[in-house]
Design goal:
7-stranded parallel beta sheet, alpha/beta, binds 2-succinylbenzoate, TIM Barrel, Enolase-like, domain 1, 379 residues, 4-stranded antiparallel beta sheet, 13 helices, binds magnesium ion
Length: 379
């Protein structure tokens, strides 16, 4: 069934985090999140642009995605009739990069399409391999190892199935050793967010003593080949995050043995169409995947839940309860974790959660409403 998007509302909301979150590239205290609402008739679909407040995870940030959406991405999809949400990403392919901005619109249209068909988004994307998503937590860099150990104990008692800790030079081997000593049997992994180079191979090899599930993105955010050199030199499985932006990257990384695992993030790869292609490449090559997080609001979180129902998402994702980040989330009900550390996949239409539009409005610090320049011809 052909459909078109009648208008798009882009807004920036500001939400304080319950706790600051620190990675090797910086500390986040408050989120500035750009949301996309795609409207057809009286139905709205929602997407989240997962860019950070600064261009430190990758080159996109709240300030760059705004003009990108308004000047390039949204006009291009307002002016068109679509047969399938798979046709959204090709409409913005002429833009180089800016995948998070493009992904925010693409995922909004997937939600819209699912709601127009009154089906859950996980059905629309071809997922549904599981009804519960196994969940882990990502724990930022802390002021002391004692504080970190306490936080891990807290998350384990909440039921989370695996612990990921952020590392950087000066907060790595000794920290992991202490964590392992305190928690000998937990599923444990580390994420370096590109804080190391090949000069650190001997240092990173020391992590092999702690039987980690993986080390995530140790080397440069735009590198694949050096990761292959590192992977050949250490036993800990390398997982790639930042540097995998397309199925072609995934195929190349697998071909040169740069990783054994891939983290898929919707924003980083430009939305569901490319995320599914990466998923398929990994599945065909026996590479397990998991769903990463970007400190999303409930909207992005709900998209992640749908994504993680694809069959190859066999490892626990960075999908955790709303309350770990937000005093009050912008969706209803909030995302909650079961006692076994899983999220139950919702069965409602689209995202399967209601967007709290009044609350979103109250958090909005800028907003733009876009419509086609000329009404679409009916053909
Ligand atoms: O590398 O996975 C990452 C948060 C912001 C930017 C990058 C990353 C992260 C996380 C948090 O690890 C995951 C989450 O949203 O829970
Ligand atoms: Mg990461």
């Amino acid at each position: 069934m052909a459909f078109q998007v009648d208008r798009v509302i882009v807004r920036q909301i500001r939400m304080p985090l319950v706790h600051p979150f620190e990675t090797s590239f910086g500390r986040t205290q408050q989120r500035d999140i750009v949301l996309v609402e795609a409207v057809a008739g009286d139905i709205s679909g929602y997407g989240e642009v997962t860019a950070g407040e600064n261009p430190f995870y990758n080159e996109e940030w709240t300030g760059s995605v705004w003009p990108l959406l308004i000047d390039y991405v949204v006009p291009r999809i307002l002016d068109h009739k679509f047969e399938s949400p798979l046709d959204i990403a090709p409409r913005t392919k002429y833009i180089r990069g800016h995948l998070m901005a493009r992904g925010g619109v693409e995922t909004a249209v997937w939600d819209l399409y699912a709601r127009l068909h009154n089906e859950p988004l996980w059905t629309t994307i071809g997922g549904g391999a599981r009804q519960e998503i196994p969940c882990g937590v990502s724990i930022g860099i802390q002021d002391s190892i004692d504080v970190l150990i306490e936080k891990i104990a807290h998350e384990l008692s909440a039921g989370y199935q695996r612990i990921k800790i952020k590392i950087k030079p000066g907060w790595d081997i000794d920290v992991v050793r202490e964590v392992r000593r305190n928690f000998p049997a937990i599923k444990l992994m580390v994420d370096a967010n590109s804080a190391y180079t090949l000069n650190d191979v001997d240092h990173l090899r020391k992590l092999d003593d702690f039987y980690l599930m993986m080390i995530e993105q140790p080397l440069a955010y735009d590198d694949i080949l050096d990761h292959a050199v590192l992977q050949a030199a250490i036993q800990t499985p390398v997982c790639l995050d930042e540097c995998i932006r397309s199925a072609r990257h995934a195929e190349q990384a697998i071909r040169v043995k740069a990783c054994q695992i891939i983290n898929i993030k919707l924003g980083r790869v430009g939305g569901f169409a490319e995320a599914k292609r990466i998923h398929d490449v990994c599945q065909q090559n026996g590479i397990p995947v998991w769903c990463g997080g970007m400190l999303e609001s409930g909207i992005g979180r709900a998209h992640n839940v749908a994504l993680a129902t694809l069959p190859d998402f066999v490892l626990p994702g960075d999908i955790s309860a709303s309350k770990r980040y937000w005093e009050r989330d912008i969706i209803h009900p909030a995302v909650e974790i079961t006692r076994n550390g899983a999220v139950n996949v919702p069965n409602g239409a689209g995202l399967g959660y209601d967007v709290d539009v009044d609350y979103v409005e109250s958090l909005t610090i800028r907003k733009e409403r876009l419509e086609p320049e000329l009404p679409l011809q009916s053909s």
